[in-house]
Structure formats: C-alpha cells, structure tokens
C-alpha cells in the first residue's frame, strides 16, 4: 500500500496544482469511484476511518471511457469524444461507459482526504451516474464490488429505469498524451497490481 501511495505522490508533484471544481451542493457527499477507491480497504485507508457512515452501490458513468495512465497502475476517465482521439477504432458499446461504485455519505473531511490522495492529476466534475442496485453499507461493499466486476453492463442498463444521480467524479485534467490508447480493466488490475494497494 505504501508503494502505491508513493506512486500517487510522485505523480502529483510533477505539475503545479490547479484548483478542483468541487461541487458545494449536497451531491458533494456523493461520489463515483472507478479505480483503486472502489476497494473498501483502500477507501478506508484514504479517509482514515472505517467508513461506517457510508453507503455504496454499483453504478455506471455514461459517455466516459476509462484509460490506462502511462507508467501507473491506476486509471483515469475522460469524455467519450476525447477518447476517440486516442482510440480511433470503434469502441464496443459496453465500454462506452464506466463501471464503478457510487458512494454516499462522504463528509467534507472525507472529501479533503480524497482530494489530497488524488492530487493534481484530476479535477472534480459533477456528472450523471446511473445506480444499478440499492445502496448498501460500506461493510457489505465487497459484495457491491463483486456486482461491478461481474456485471453485464449492457443488460444492466437495459433492465433498469434511467434513474440518474448527480455525483462528483474525478476526471483527468492533464494532457491526453499522458494516457495510453488502452482501456483499463478490473481483471488486469487485480491480476497485476492490486496487491500493491492492499
């Protein structure tokens, strides 16, 4: 875990910080995570408590693509139209959205810790996120995460009513040249890098 945190710190010290667009409305307590913070043990480590007040559910962020970051194991999302500049070939429909976890109940202090963890590689934007199931306590988030990993995104989207929640999302803010023209996947991350974060 310390190795992964150092990797984040080194990357965030490279360029000067730009102020993030943190939404001050009630949705600031609602955030969508699509990479390392999907894992309860990582999130608890970052916010420095057990997260007993948090709820989570599997969710989908439409019209964004999750890319690999050059020389890193964590991902980044960018809007679909920007992704087309990196991946000129046709992107499968199931990859034209991002699977992840929607977390509710984050406090201002939690968000400050998360912002510090993410550094200046990303900025917060407010986006429409579609929950796929009911919220459950973070204690049961291992099951939530498994739902995300095993989810058939296309069928899930078709079988659920188009209910969206406005949530904060970390979106890549640095040049696209720092991203790889490859889609980041859970399976590859868990196989090759997850142990460094646990």
Average per-residue pLDDT, rounded, comes to 80
Please count the helical segments. Answer: 7
The CATH architecture: Roll
How do the strands line up in the largest sheet?
1-5-2-6-8
The share of residues in helices is 25-40%
Q: Measure the end-to-end span.
A: 5 Å
Succession of helices and strands: HEHEEEHEHEEHHEEH
Organism: Rickenella mellea
GO molecular function, one term: transferase activity
Pfam families: GGACT
Protein name: Putative gamma-glutamylcyclotransferase
Quick take:
This protein has one domain (2-197): Hypothetical upf0131 protein ytfp (Roll), CATH 3.10.490.10.
Describe the structure.
There is one protein chain. The protein is an alpha+beta fold. It has a single domain (2-197), classed as Hypothetical upf0131 protein ytfp (Roll). 31% of the residues lie in helices and 28% in strands. It has helices at residues 2-12, 40-47, 80-86, 108-118, 141-150, 153-159, 186-192, and strands at residues 30-33, 55-62, 64-69, 75-79, 97-104, 122-131, 136-137, 165-172, 179-183. The chain has a 5-stranded mixed barrel. It has a 3-stranded antiparallel sheet with strand order 4-3-9. β3 (64-69) and β4 form a beta hairpin. The radius of gyration is 16 Å and the shape is globular. The N and C termini lie close together (5 Å). The model is unreliable at 12-27 (pLDDT under 50).
